[in-house]
Design a protein that fits this description.
Structural class: mainly alpha
Strand order of the largest sheet: 1-2
């Protein structure tokens, strides 16, 4: 049946990038596909989808600022403050995506990951409490978070707090105003988001399913998602999983 556009609607170009960008395929589309495998109510599904979209919006804004920095950096006709504005946008949107939006998405799955953004002592005590409350999540998850904090996440949070939000006197800005560093931070953030959310989704799947990595050669070049859900264990192992969940008091979906 033929359709016509509503006279009050106007089609606009939303972005200059799509699913060929690895981060778009793996975060925006890949995580959305994994979330669709969960047994959620309509309201829960809406809340998770909305939180993921908000996180994608922050990553999109950061990515566009990275593209702008690539274009402007090194040009003698560009004032430093114009370039600085783009760098500030990169780190502000990345910090929002990682801390604020990812925490909101985790909350829609009934996880509290606030400990991740605390000082070291509180992080460690919070991590222990988290593992006690989530018996299906292994300690490797905490090891991953701890390593991210050591390498880049604590530095990004400090930069956001001291430079972007409070303009603290004497705050260290090097090496943040550097194209290569900005690109690396963008990559670190979206990959950490993907890894974290995958860890949080998998325990919520029925016991016979798991999340598996798609071999690089088998990924769709037009949308190269990294993960997919597949049956993971034999029937006997599934029954054992059910028994173990019963012992821990976990309610089956």
């Amino acid at each position: 049946m033929a359709t016509t556009a509503h006279p009050n609607f106007k089609l606009i170009k939303w972005t200059d990038f799509g699913t060929e960008e690895e981060w778009v395929a793996r975060v925006a589309f890949g995580l959305a596909e994994l979330l669709r495998q969960l047994h959620q109510t309509e309201e829960e599904r809406f809340r998770s989808g909305e939180a993921l979209q908000e996180m994608d919006n922050e990553l999109s804004a950061a990515f566009m600022a990275v593209c702008n920095v690539r274009e402007l950096d090194g040009r003698e006709d560009i004032a430093f403050m114009e370039l600085r504005k783009e760098y500030d946008a990169i780190y502000d949107h990345l910090a929002r995506a990682y801390k604020d939006r990812m925490s909101t998405l985790a909350a829609t799955l009934d996880y509290d990951i606030g400990f991740l953004f605390q000082k070291d002592q509180n992080f460690e005590s919070g991590a222990s409490l988290f593992l006690s409350a989530q018996p299906r999540i292994q300690s490797d998850f905490i090891d991953m978070l701890r390593e991210d904090r050591r390498i880049w996440a604590t530095g990004l949070q400090k930069f956001r707090n001291e430079v972007l939000q409070h303009r603290a006197e004497g705050a260290q800005t090097a090496p943040y105003f550097n194209v290569g560093f900005a690109e690396a931070t963008f990559r670190n953030v979206w990959q950490a988001i993907e890894d974290t959310v995958v860890w949080l989704i998998e325990p919520l799947l029925p016991p016979i399913f798991g999340i598996y990595e798609i071999a690089p050669e088998n990924r769709d070049p037009k949308c190269p998602r990294r993960y997919e859900v597949n049956a993971s264990v034999t029937l006997l192992e599934a029954l054992q999983n059910v028994e173990r969940l019963g012992e821990t008091g976990t309610e089956m979906i």
